[in-house]
Amino acid sequence: MNGKRLDRVSTGIKKIDEILEGGYPAGRSVLISGSAGTGKTIMGMHFANASVKQGIKTVYITTEEKPSDIVIQASLIGIELQKYIDNEMLQVLTIKELIDTSPQFFMDPHATPSTRLTLRDIPEIIPENYMNVVIDNIGIMTLDMELKKLRIQIDYLVEKLHDMNKTSVIICDDIANDITKKVASYSVYGGMQLVRKINPYSGLMERYLDIYKMRGTGVPEGPYKYIITGNGIQLLEGR
Ligand SMILES: Nc1ncnc2c1ncn2[C@@H]1O[C@H](COP(=O)(O)OP(=O)(O)O)[C@@H](O)[C@H]1O
Ligand SMILES: [Mg+2]
After folding, report:
1. Which of 103, 177, 203, 214 could cross-link 190 (Cys pair, CB 3.0–4.6 Å)?
2. Strands ordered across the beta sheet of 190-198
3. How far is the CA of 9 from the centre of ligand 2 (A)?
4. Atom of ligand 1 nearest to the CA of 194
5. Considering only CA atoms, which of 147, 128, 167, 218 is closest in space to residue 50?
6. Distance 6 CA to ligand 1 centre (A)
7. Domain assignment present for 3
8. Whose CA is nearest to atom 3 of ligand 1?
9. pLDDT value of position 207
10. Global pTM?
């Protein structure tokens, strides 16, 4: 035998599980980036859904939406999360309100917030026994930060999540990821980019998944074409 295989956790999308030798590497962090509307949140929902269905308690931390909106959006792609919230398999936490709380911050766009949640604080809010984690999205917490400090914070977050043995999907929007020179991608165990672009031959908009990094995994070179339907993200045959 040539070494051990990593344990895997389903991504919730069958074809991506096949490509990733079973799913996301257990106990590690994977970064999902992409511009608005590429399906980052949907990827997070698929993962959360697959996790709770397997009996793994999961926490979905959102910086953008209300928990009720996450539940409604998930139901529109055939993912029913409410019953898992009810039986405490799933917690959906909104940290929007906690990111900037000082009144001065709202009055003065240049003010530095006095009380604010940073990336370093995220591990603290993950309830014990909740082993799978979605953080959607870290962008707002990275935007105004000096690059070196940001790198240190992301390293800390990723290391801490690993120490806690959490399998984590960390989502970052492209604006923040580009402004921060994609610094987060260096800290994480794996990275996937969702892309929407026009096919120059057909003139049609197409979606692609690029798995640019996945340690310990022999990923066949993509990109992989996908569509979003009433059943969520679906990878198409071929590349
Ligand atoms: N039922 C559906 N049928 C087709 N496309 C859908 C459906 N639900 C959502 N989408 C697509 O998914 C996009 C939103 O995905 P989302 O994961 O919220 O994006 P983001 O990357 O911004 O988090 C929508 O803009 C739409 O294109
Ligand atoms: Mg989103």
Report:
1. 214
2. 90-94, 58-62, 132-136, 167-173, 29-34, 190-198, 205-214, 224-229, 232-235
3. 21
4. 21
5. 167
6. 31
7. no
8. 229
9. 98
10. 0.93
pLDDT tens digits, 161-204: 999 999 999 999 999 999 999 999 999 999 999 999 999 999 99
Phi, psi at 72, each rounded to 5°: -65, -45
Residue 1 pLDDT > 50, yes or no? Answer: no
pLDDT at 114: 47
Distances (CA, A) of 173 to 7, 61, 162, 202, 218: 28, 15, 22, 27, 26
Q: Within a domain: residue 50?
A: yes
Residue 1 structure tokens: 């035998």
* Tokens, residue 121: 């604080």
- Local structure of residue 139 (DSSP, 8 states): G
Give how many domains the chain has, as a whole number: 1
Q: In terms of DSSP bridges, do strands 224-229 and 8-9 run parallel, antiparallel, or are they unpaired?
A: unpaired
**How close is the Cα of 40 to the center of ligand 2, in Å?**
5
Domain with residue 121: its CATH number is: 3.40.50.300
- Say yes or no: CB of residue 169 within 6 Å of ligand 1: no
Instruction: Check pocket membership of 139 for ligand 1, CB cut-off 6 A.
Output: no
- 2 within a domain of the structure (yes/no): no
Which atom of ligand 1 sits closest to the CA of residue 44? 17
Note the pLDDT tens digit of each residue in 45-60. 999 999 999 999 999 9
Provide the domain limits for residue 104. Answer: 8-235
Residue 233 Cβ contacting ligand 1 at under 6 Å: no
Exposure on the CB side of residue 29, measured as CA atoms within 13 A: 25
Is residue 33, in this structure, part of any structural domain at all?
A: yes
